[in-house]
Amino acid sequence: MIVKNEELVLDNCLKNVHDLVDEIIIVDTGSTDKTKEIAKKYTDKIYDFKWIDDFSAARNFSFSKATKDYILWLDADDVLPEDQREGFKKLKESLDGSADMYTMVYIYAKDANGKPSVIQRNYRLMKRENNYKWESPIHEYIQPYGKIINTEVTVVHNKLRPNEKNRNLKIFNKMINDGYEFNEREKYCYAMELHRSGNIPKAIDEFEKFKKQYSTDYEKHKWYLYDALIELSDCYKKIGNDNKELDTLFFILKNQMPTIVCLNKIADNFRRKEKYKEAIYWFNLSANCEDDNPLKDNELFKTYLAQGFCHYQLKQYDKAYEVNEKAGKINPQDQSYLKNKEIYQSLIK
After folding, report:
1. Which residue(s) pair with 120 in the sheet?
2. Which terminus of the chain, N or C, has fewer Cβ atoms within 10 Å?
3. Is the pLDDT of residue 242 over 80?
C-alpha cells in the first residue's frame, strides 16, 4: 500500500485483511496525521518515500519491498468485505505458482440505494518474480501479461474524503511542462481530468483530438475511444450543445454495437427537447439492448423512470404506470419510483 494522511480509513482497510496475508508493506508519502500510528498496529514494515508527483514511482517502491511469492495491492480506502474473506482464503490456498496474475472485482462507487454504480475489474494479485512495473505518474497501471485468472473476489472502494483539489490535473500539467510524451491511455485520462475539473472547453478540445487520432481504427482503440466519446457527449450536454452531443453519440452507433448507456443518452437528448415520442422510441431500444454491462440493471432503472416520464407528458398514464412498475422491480424502495407510482395511479381512470 501507498498512503498519505489516511487516518480515517486505514484501520478499516487493514482490520479485514491483516490476518489473510503474510506481510503488510506500507509506504508513506508524507503523512502528517496518525496514519503511521495506525499502520504500526498491523505491521512494522513501514517505509517513507519522498513524494515526487508520481504514483507509479511510489507503487514500484512498495513492490520492491515485497518478499512473498505473490503481491496483493490495496488503497487505504479499499475494503475487503467480511463476506469476501472466505473467497480470498480459498484463492490464496489455491495459489500454486501456475498463474501470473489474478483479477478481482472492484466496486468503485455506489448509488443512493447502496447498489454498485461503478464496477471495474482490476489486476490485484500478481507473481512477484515477474517484476511487474507500474507505469504513468497519474492513473497508474500495470501492463498485464502471462497467465491471467479472473476471480469473483470483490474489493469495495470506501472513499471518505475528497482528493486534494485538482491534484491529478496538477500532475498532468507537470508532465506536460517536463515534456512527457502521453500515450493513448494518458491522453484519455488527461481529457477526463479536464472534464472533471470543470474546464469543459479544453476537455472538448482534447477529446476531439483523441477522436480524430484514434477513430481511423475504431475497433483497435475501442477500449478508450468509447469512454472518451461518452465523456465528450457529456461535455457538449453541459454547454447546451444538443446537436453536437447527438452527433457524438451517433458516431458511436456508426462504429459499434449499441450500448444501453449510449441509447439512454440519445433518448434523454430528445426528452430534454420535449420530443417525447422520439425519446420513447430510443428508450424502447435501450430497454431491449443486448449489453453485457455489469451495471445493466442500474441503466434499465434510469430507462424505465425516464420513459415513464415521457408517457406521462403525453398523458399516456397507463403506459407511464406500466413502465414505472418495471423500474420498481429493480429498485422497489427508490423514492422516485414510489412518488411516480402515486402520481400515475391517481391519474389512471
Report:
1. 106
2. C
3. yes
Is 91's pLDDT higher than 90?
Answer: yes
173 and 112 co-located in one domain: no
Mark out the alpha helices in the chain (DSSP H runs).
Answer: 10-15, 35-39, 55-64, 85-94, 167-177, 184-197, 200-214, 218-238, 242-255, 260-272, 276-287, 296-313, 317-330, 335-347
Q: Hey, what amino acid is at 347?
A: L
**Pairing assessment for the beta strands 26-28 and 101-110 based on DSSP bridges:** unpaired
205 contacts: CB under 8 Å, gap ≥ 6: none
Pair 49, 27: CB distance under 8 Å:
yes
pLDDT on residue 101 = 98
Place of cell 493513448: 184
Count of beta carbons in the 10 Å neighbourhood of residue 63? 19
User: Are residues 171 and 71 part of one domain?
Assistant: no
> pTM of the prediction?
0.91
Phi first, then psi: give them for residue 78, nearest 5 degrees.
Answer: -95, 150
* 227 shares a domain with 182: yes
Q: Is residue 199 located within the same domain as residue 57?
A: no
Question: What are the b/e assignments for 173-187, b being 16+ CB within 10 Å?
Answer: eebeeeeeeeeeebb
Q: The domain that contains 150 carries what CATH number?
A: 3.90.550.10
Angle between helices 317-330 and 296-313 (to 10 degrees): 160
Q: What is the pLDDT of residue 166?
A: 86
Name the domain boundary from 99, 129, 157.
157
Shared domain check, 324 and 192: yes
Question: Do 180 and 130 fall within a single domain?
Answer: no
End-to-end CA distance of the chain: 61
In a domain, 233, yes or no: yes
Asked if residue 196 and residue 336 are part of one domain, the reply reads yes
Are 331 and 305 a contacting pair, CB within 8 Å? Answer: no
Side-chain half-sphere CA neighbours of 123 within 13 A: 18
Range of the domain at 311: 167-347
